[in-house]
Amino acid sequence: MSPAPDGPAQTGPEEEPELVLSPSERMAHNSALRIAGGRKDVTSTQKALASIVLGFELIIVVLIGLTLFGLGTFEPRELGLYIGGGLALVIVVALAAMRRARVGIVIGWAVHALMLATGILLPAAALVGLLFTGLWVYCMIKGARIDRDRAAWIAAQLGR
């Protein structure tokens, strides 16, 4: 087809125009994939979403540890810091493992079980644990669906 007078060439109705990212969008996209352990040809939306949720949860876990310390929930008081630090360490291990294998997602599920268990020590943490667990479940379901849809789309494109 001929180019439109004031725009790019029109493609057929069944073809979608190629998505063009701005330099800042491309940099953000590449950074998110790199953090999630994505390589050039292999990307996982589920892993990217899991990394984001665990990253934010890491901040919350450190704050919960400081809260347990500040409230003097345990004797000795430092035990609250150890609990928060231990859970933060598990999150860091999950994030590191997620870059290489699916085991990071399994560790992420364990993190959420531990996060819900902190509700016994600090009732307000139960609410935060429920919110993050709900977000985690949503991201796992949607991420897997996006990955399946992308794989089907790629298979359809290669099958032309």
From TrEMBL:
The lineage of its organism: Bacteria, Bacillati, Actinomycetota, Actinomycetes, Micrococcales. Residues 1-22 are annotated as: Disordered. Keywords: Membrane, Transmembrane, Transmembrane helix. The chain crosses the membrane at residues 48-73, 79-97, 109-138. InterPro entries: DUF4233. This is DUF4233 domain-containing protein. The keyword Transmembrane applies. It comes from Leucobacter massiliensis. It holds the Pfam family DUF4233.
